Automatic annotation (TrEMBL):
Superkingdom assignment: Bacteria
Stored Pfam families: YkuD
Region Disordered, annotated ranges: 22-49
Segments forming domain L,D-TPase catalytic: 114-226
Signal as UniProt keyword: yes
Pro residues bias locations: 27-42
Record protein name field: L,D-TPase catalytic domain-containing protein
GO MF: transferase activity
Keyword terms, alphabetized: Signal
Nucleotide-binding recorded as keyword: no
Length: 246
């Protein structure tokens, strides 16, 4: 080996010992640490209702009529997704629940309890919620002048006009299975809105409810446990109605 070749070989060997390739600028940096996954959505919310089950209904923004419904379980202090499905919202999008007005075809944002379930069809296998069968004389009163405002009635009372109420049996597809959303329910405010449910999809956007495919609605009812105090949070990805605010 010539003196020049020997010198070149010694330089290359020295560089390799230092952990650098010939012509490199120093040791090879270590790979970046793996990115940690963000906390699950319920863990980022201001309130989840205090129970160990939660349903979230999220839209991209207040003008959207579609989004995602996800149901969660709290296990060992961590929220775990139990299921998910595409969701539909009001034909005019979403509105802050505290200021929403009746007849606007908007879905109210906020965090709500789920008082009871009902349906034209029998409850899905595994349902433990109180489940009311829809009959010919089953109505949901939406008449602001009625003492039964925002209540299930059987039969429809005289002070609740049919034109201002829902005859539940008339919505056999949508109300095959449903859960009452506790919006404006415990202490109803006239003009705020009535008859807001989580129910089966119809032909398109809703009049203010949240709807999902029939199979998803059956899965939710079989999953929900009243003793776990499930709540439903409705909101958007961000902005003033961000679901993380509720």
């Amino acid at each position: 080996m010539s003196p020049r070749a020997l010198a070149t070989a010694l330089v290359c060997a020295s560089l390799l010992l230092l952990g650098a390739a010939p012509g490199g600028g120093g040791p090879t940096p270590p790979p970046p640490p793996p990115r940690s996954s963000p906390p699950p959505l319920p863990a980022r919310m201001a309130d989840t209702g205090g129970g160990t089950q939660l349903i979230t209904a999220v839209a991209p923004d207040t003008g959207a009529t579609a989004g995602t419904l996800t149901w969660w379980d709290l296990r060992g202090g961590r929220w775990v997704r139990a299921g998910s499905a595409p969701a539909r919202f009001g034909a005019k999008g979403l509105a802050e629940g505290a200021v929403r007005r009746q007849g606007t075809n908007t879905t109210p944002t906020g965090l709500y309890d789920l008082p009871f379930a009902f349906g034209v069809q029998a409850p899905p296998r595994g349902t433990t919620y109180v489940y009311r069968p829809v009959r010919e004389d089953s109505w949901w009163c939406q008449d602001n002048a009625s003492r039964s405002y925002n209540r299930w009635t059987e039969p429809r009372p005289a002070d609740c006009r049919a034109a201002e109420s829902e005859h539940l049996l008339a919505y056999r597809t949508q109300y095959a299975h449903a859960l009452v959303i506790g919006f404006n329910y415990r202490h109803p405010v006239r003009g705020r809105g009535a008859g807001i449910f989580l129910h089966v999809n119809g032909r398109g956007a809703t009049a203010g409810c949240v709807s999902v495919p029939a199979d998803a609605m059956r899965r939710v009812l079989a999953w929900a446990r009243p003793t776990h105090r499930p709540h439903l949070a409705i909101g958007t990805d961000g902005g003033r109605t961000a679901i993380t605010r509720y």
